[in-house]
Amino acid sequence: MISKLNKVLIDTAKENVAGGTDSTMRLLPYQLPLVISKSEGIRVWDVEGKELIDMNMGYGPLLFGHRSRIVTDAIKKELELRGTVLGFIHELSSEVALLIKKSFPSIDLIRFSSSGTEVAQTAVRLARAYTNRTNIVVFEGHYHGSSNAVFHKYHAEIADIESQPSYNAIPGTEGMGGEPQNIFVLPWNNLNLLKTFFEEKGETIAAVIMEPVMGNAGVIAPKDGYLQGVRKLTQDYGSLLIFDEIISGYRVARGGAQERYGVQSDITLLSKAMNGGVPISAIGGRREVMNLLVEGRVFHGGVYSGNPMCLAATLAVQQEYDTNGEWIYSTLEDNSRYLCTELLQIFKTAGIPVSVQNVGAMISLSFVEEGFTQRFEDYREIKKFTNKDKYIKFQNELQIEGVYIHPNQFEPWYLSTLHTTEQLDIVLEKMDKVIRRINWSSMDSVKLHSRV
Ligand SMILES: Cc1ncc(COP(=O)(O)O)c(C=O)c1O
């Protein structure tokens, strides 16, 4: 059973730390208490010494596992050289930028920051300044950080949005003071809707920003030709295309979705797998756009931006991709396919209808109704036709069994290079055990929307 100490420590933390956690997403109301004291490879240990196989991997960055020597050795070395933060220019920025450009040919110039939120906000600012327009298009289910610039209610209730093909962004939290402003929200993966919207408002749109593989509402691939269609549409109307590849970059391919689907954006946002687990992000783009930063017309700063400690780790990770990229991505692809195939089989044998979707080593599992065989193509579908309660039950039981998946059904599972088939067999065995243990029929009564 889940130890009491986990709960005691969270309750104690609540005396000093708001809600007992540093991120609202890290302690959901339906989550079993879990406080980690140690990590290594694909495993974490809680404060009572209970071992869990981690399928969340820090929300994606830990592509080489927890405490990878690639990352920690580089940091140790840098600590002896330039330390943690400098406040001066050093050569690591340009060394890392050069390697990123090798993976992302759409990028001419780069700036480093500390979080995805910061670079998303900078991208919106750049697009508005470059085009001299104010409106931005975002999509349901897509998350670009928590800044006032773009933080919208990306997991809105279906009833609030269903009747609208496009609408003004709903603020993502209280306290946004009327922002986000001039942000329009549309369903993703529907080129016709976007075309219609552009026919009306295209001349006013500074940029379209999207996750080119949706990873914040399950894992949903772009439909054939969708990214190409958006690329053309934005070009035709003089709007910029921003790919938020904070999840997909260095995960679905070394060159992210841009490489996998053969489409280039004007601005690219990177973090997570780019750096292997240190707090650093990057914004890169076409020279004409990034020149606004060069000229100082658009401001971007940050005491910790491009600090040597994080850049040294990122350089080591980038060198690893440069040397072993082929092996890394074929391994991730193969292992992910193996897990998905076996998982589907286990659920089929147990007679529990599920949908499993993946793009490379990002995977999502959804509990669906009997007979549901279609693939989810946008947020509205995945929100409507999945049984959240079954997912939470599965997650809770799995955590007790010693495998951690995030309790939010929309959060992907992320594999690292250390999730070998042997390790995945252990995961599958535990999942099989849990699936047999749960009394699924007691949850069938949960009402799902009917398919339209
Ligand atoms: C696609 C995407 N963009 C932006 C962000 C925000 O990044 P950060 O949490 O580093 O601000 C995230 C975070 O998960 C993300 O998944």
Report the top-level CATH class of the largest domain: Alpha Beta
Give the biggest sheet: 8 strands, mixed
* Principal-axes shape call: globular
Small molecules (ligands, ions, cofactors) in the structure: pyridoxal-5'-phosphate
Unreliable spans: none
Order of helices and strands: HEEEHHEHEHEEHEHEHEEHHEEHHEEH
Question: What's the arrangement of strands in the largest beta sheet?
Answer: 4-11-10-9-8-5-7-6
User: Approximately how much helix is present in the residues?
Assistant: 25-40%
Give the oligomer, counting copies of the same chain as homo and different chains as hetero: single chain
Integer average pLDDT: 96
Please explain how this structure is put together:
With 452 residues, this protein is of the alpha/beta class. The chain has 2 domains: 4-66 and 325-443, Aspartate Aminotransferase, domain 1, CATH 3.90.1150.10; 69-322, 3-Layer(aba) Sandwich (Aspartate Aminotransferase, domain 2), CATH 3.40.640.10. Helix content is 37%, strand content 14%. A hairpin with a 4-residue loop joins strand 2 and strand 3. Helix 3 runs parallel beside helix 10 and helix 12 packs across helix 13 (421-437). The structure holds pyridoxal-5'-phosphate. The site of pyridoxal-5'-phosphate has 14 residues, from helix 4.
